[in-house]
Amino acid sequence: MPGLPDVVLAGHAPERAPELRSQVRSQVREAGPVALAGFAANGANVVVTVLVARLLSTRGYGALAQITSLFLVVSLPGTAVVVGVVRRVTALALSRRTEAVSEWARRSHRQATVVVAVLAVGALAARGPLSRALSIPSPLAVFAILTAGMLWVVLSMDRGLLQARRRYRTLSANLVVEGGARTAAVLVLVGAGLGVAGAAWGILVAEAVTLLHARWAADRAWGGRARRARADEMESVTGVAGVPVVSGAARAAAATGHGVRGEHQRLVRDVLGALVAMALLAYLQNVDVIVLGREAPGGTGPYAAISVASKALVFGAIALGGYLLPEAAIEWHRGGHALRQLWVTVLFLAVPGAVLLLGAIAFPRWLLSLVFSARYVGAHAAFWPLVLAMCFLSVTVVLTIYLLAAGQRWIGGLLAVGAVAATVALAAAHGAYRPTALADLAVQGGLALSTAAVFVRLHSRRVFVATTERLAA
Directed axis angle between helix 364-372 and helix 383-405, to 10°? Predict the structure, then answer.
C-alpha cells in the first residue's frame, strides 16, 4: 500500500510485502467504519454543544461543561469494563469455550442492572447536596447525568462483547445510534426551555436507547455461536459411541487453571488495572477545565469552547480503541503483536488532528466565532496549544489501550505521575487561558513521549520473538 510507514512492514521478508499490504488494507477496512462512526458521533456531540451554547448564557454553558465532565468521570469505569470483557471473552474463545460467553454475559448484565438501579436511587437522594457542592444550578441535572454515566458503564459490557466478536460494523452502528439519539434528545429538551437540566436528561435518554440496541446486538452476536458450541461440546464429551471422553481443549483449560474462580480473579485484576488507567486518562483530559473552573469560575465559558473542540480528538482515540483493543488482545494471546493495527489506528487519528491544529493556528478567532459565536472567542490564544496537547493525549490513550489489552497494568503508574504533574502545572497558571493551555501542553507532550519510549522498550522483545518465529515458519 503506497504511503504506509516502513515500520509497518519492517522485519518481514521482501517477498511477503504484497501479503502484508493486503493485510493492512483489510485492517484499514475493519477500522474504517469504527473511525468514521466514532468521529461522526463525536462530531454530532460537538454540533449539539455548539447549538446549545447559542441557547444558553455563558454561565449556563459553563455549567454544561461541568456536567459533561461529571458524566465522563462517572462513566470512566465503562472503558475498564470493556478491557476486562474483551480480555476474558478472547481467552474463552481461543480456548474453545464460547459456550460460556452468552450465559455469562446475560448473568453479568442482570447483576449490573440491579447495581445501577440501587445507585440511581442513591443519586436521587443525594442530588441536592451534590449540586451545591459542584455549583451546578439544577439538582435534577446532577441526578440525570449520574444515572446516564452509570448506564454507559452497563452499555460498555455489550460493546466489549461486540469487540471481542470483531463485530466492528455493528459496533459502529451502535456509536451512530448513540450520537443520533443524543443529538435529537438534547436539542429537543434544551429547545423546550429546560436549559442545563434538559441537556442532562437528553443524555440520559440517549444512553438508555443505546444500551437497548447494544444488548440486542451483543445477544444476537453470541447467542447462535454459543448454541453451536454447546452442541460441539456434547459431541466431544460423549464421543461417537456414547463413551465419555475429555477433549484436548478441556484438558488444556483444566491444566492452565481456567476455573470459574481463576477467571473471575483475572477479570477483576484486568478491570481494576484498566479502571485506574482510564480514570487517570479521564482526569488528564479534564483536569484543565476542573482547575480553571476552580481558579476562575466566571470565565469557564470561552475556555469550554476550545475544550470541546480540542477534546473531540481524545474521544476519537477512545472510539478507535474499540478496534485496537480486541485486535491487540487476540494477537497477544496468540503470542504475536498488533503493531500494524496500532499504526492503522494512529493514521486514522492523524488526519483530523492535523486539520484541527491547522485551523487553530491559522484562524482561531474566526473558527471559534463561526462555530460558537463571538461570545466565546476570549480564549482563542489558548486554542492551538490545547489542540496540540490533546493530540499528545490521544497518543497516550491509544498506547494505553494497547498495553491494557496485553495485560500490562504498569501503565497506571506512569499515568499517575502525569496526573500529579498536570495538577501542579495547571494550578500554577492561576486560571489564565493561555498559560493553562501551555502548561497542559508541556505535561501531555512529556507524558506521551515517556509512554512511547517505555512502550517501545517493553514491546521490542515481543516483536523480535514474533518476527523470528514468522521468518522461521
Answer: 80
Q: Residue 52 and residue 57: Cα distance in Å, rounded?
A: 10
Contact present, 8 and 466 (Cβ < 8 Å)? no
Q: What span, in angstroms and rounded, lies between the C-alpha atoms of 317 and 325?
A: 11
Cα–Cα distance for residue pair 430/193, rounded to 1 Å:
35
In this predicted model, which residue has the larger pLDDT, 467 or 428? 428
Contact 167, 98 (CB under 8 A): no
Distance CA 348, CA 412 (A): 25
Q: Which three cell numbers stand for residue 61?
A: 454553558
- Write the DSSP string, 64-117: HHHHHHHHHHHHTHHHHHHHHHHHHHHHHHHTT-THHHHHHHHHHHHHHHHHHH
Whether the per-residue pLDDT at 24 is higher than 80: the answer is no
Quick one: which H or E segment has residue 14? none
Q: Residue 223's pLDDT is what? A: 73
Residue 318 half-sphere exposure toward CB, CA atoms < 13 A: 24
Is the distance from CB of 96 to CB of 166 less than 8 angstroms?
no
Residue 17 is predicted with a pLDDT of 52
Contacts of residue 402, defined as CB under 8 A and 6 or more positions apart, other chains included, come to 324, 325, 328, 338, 342, 455
- Of residues 184 and 95, the one with the higher pLDDT is 184
Task: Residue count of the chain, please give it.
Answer: 473
3-state secondary structure of 264: helix
CB of 181 closer than 8 Å to CB of 205: yes
pLDDT exceeding 90 applies to what percent of the chain? Answer: 17
pLDDT digits 0-9 by tens, 227-275: 444 444 433 333 333 333 333 443 444 444 445 555 666 777 778 888 8
* Count helices and strands in the chain by DSSP H and E runs: 17, 0
Integer Cα distance of 102 and 225 in angstroms:
9
242: left (phi over 0), alpha (psi -120 to 50) or beta: left
C-alpha 193/C-alpha 178 separation (Å) is 23
At which residue does the C-alpha cell 482515540 appear? 317
Say which amino acid occupies 39: F
**CA 406 to CA 206: how far, in whole Å?**
32
Query: Are 104 and 346 within 8 A, CB to CB?
Result: no
Which grid cell sits at 311?
477534546
Query: What is the spatial distance between Cα 166 and Cα 160, in angstroms, rounded to a whole number?
Result: 10
Whose cell is 454544561? That residue is 64
User: Which residue from 363, 365, 368, 322 is spatially nearest to 345, judged by alpha carbons?
Assistant: 322
The alpha-carbon radius of gyration of the chain (Å, integer) is 23
Residues 95, 252 contacting (CB under 8 angstroms): yes
3-state secondary structure at position 422: helix
Pair 383, 360: CB distance under 8 Å: yes
